[in-house]
């Protein structure tokens, strides 16, 4: 296992908060960690309307700001969309891609995830690519097949050398917003399988030379998301394949989110190379 992977704690605010609340929450997070050491990378992903306020509140700090989605085109007649160019110009550094709520409610597919991922890499945005199975798929024993397909499809036509900044998040759909947490050991297993899928995807067995094995996946951070809270984060982050958390509900107050960041800090402290 690589020792180079970062620990990342990201808050996905989803469609919550108006201006004053967003400012207050971002400032609460910034103030709550300002004297702390061994911090993980902290990323706040507010709705588009709050990006400006959150960027202002986090200016000059190590806290990063991400969008929850973006179009894959640079500009044009696409009413209602926001482009990677606009995000970068605004100061945003990260973007969530392929969240299950986008797949479920807004027609996101494996191929549009791939287009968005390519656009994010082209514009130097750090993509947090979400994958995960539904309850039906899990009950039918399809978890690994679904997740492997989502991972491979997202990487189509992307060169291994362009993967440097990519982050994956395993978010089992049945564990999102339901209070049902995926058992830490099982989440760790699937996060490991995401990494080995990436390695297999970039390994070649058919070239004129002898087979070449890729270890691209070993340095890619894989987060777990789905009902993460202060009471379960330590168990998750103690495992070798889970490099951080993508947090929904518990990122909506600093009281809930700061202890999760603290959980990330414990992982960094135990393995300083994971800062
Ligand atoms: P919850 O933490 O509310 O389950 O949401 C997880 C999630 O979807 C983060 O992207």
How would you characterize the overall build of this protein?
The protein has an eight-stranded parallel beta sheet. The two termini are about 15 Å apart. The chain has a single domain, classed as Aldolase class I (TIM Barrel, Alpha-Beta Barrel), CATH 3.20.20. The radius of gyration is 18 Å and the shape is globular. It is of the alpha/beta class and about 280 residues long. Helix 3 (about 85-90) links the parallel strand 3 (about 65) and strand 4. Helix 1 (about 20-35) runs parallel beside helix 2 (about 50-60), helix 1 (about 20-35) packs parallel to helix 10 and helix 7 packs across helix 8. The protein has ten helices and eight strands. Helix content is about 40%, strand content about 15%. 1,3-dihydroxyacetonephosphate binds near residues 12, 99, 225, 248 and 250.
């Amino acid at each position: 296992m690589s020792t180079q992977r970062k620990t990342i704690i990201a808050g996905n605010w989803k469609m919550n908060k108006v201006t004053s609340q967003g400012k207050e929450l971002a400032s609460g997070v910034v103030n709550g960690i300002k004297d702390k050491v061994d911090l993980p990378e902290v990323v706040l992903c507010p709705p588009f309307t709050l990006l400006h306020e959150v960027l202002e509140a986090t200016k000059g700090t190590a806290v990063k700001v991400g969008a929850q989605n973006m179009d894959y085109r640079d500009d044009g007649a696409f009413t209602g969309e926001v482009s990677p160019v606009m995000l970068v110009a605004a100061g945003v550094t990260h973007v969530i891609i392929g969240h299950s709520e986008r797949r479920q409610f807004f027609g996101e597919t494996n191929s549009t995830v791939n287009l968005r991922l390519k656009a994010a890499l082209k514009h130097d945005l750090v993509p947090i690519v979400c994958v995960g199975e539904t309850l039906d798929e899990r009950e039918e024993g399809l978890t690994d097949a679904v997740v492997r397909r989502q991972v491979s499809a997202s990487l189509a036509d992307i060169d291994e050398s362009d993967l440097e900044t990519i982050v994956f998040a395993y978010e089992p759909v049945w564990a999102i917003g339901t209070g049902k947490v995926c058992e830490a050991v099982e989440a760790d297993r699937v996060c490991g399988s995401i990494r080995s899928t990436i390695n297999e995807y970039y390994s070649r067995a058919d070239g004129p030379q002898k087979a070449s094995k890729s270890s691209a996946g070993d340095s890619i951070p894989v987060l777990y998301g789905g009902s993460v809270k202060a009471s379960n984060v330590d168990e998750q982050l103690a495992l070798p394949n889970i490099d951080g958390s993508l947090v929904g509900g518990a990122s909506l107050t600093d009281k809930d989110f700061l202890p999760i960041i603290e959980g990330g800090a414990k992982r960094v402290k135990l393995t300083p190379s994971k800062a």
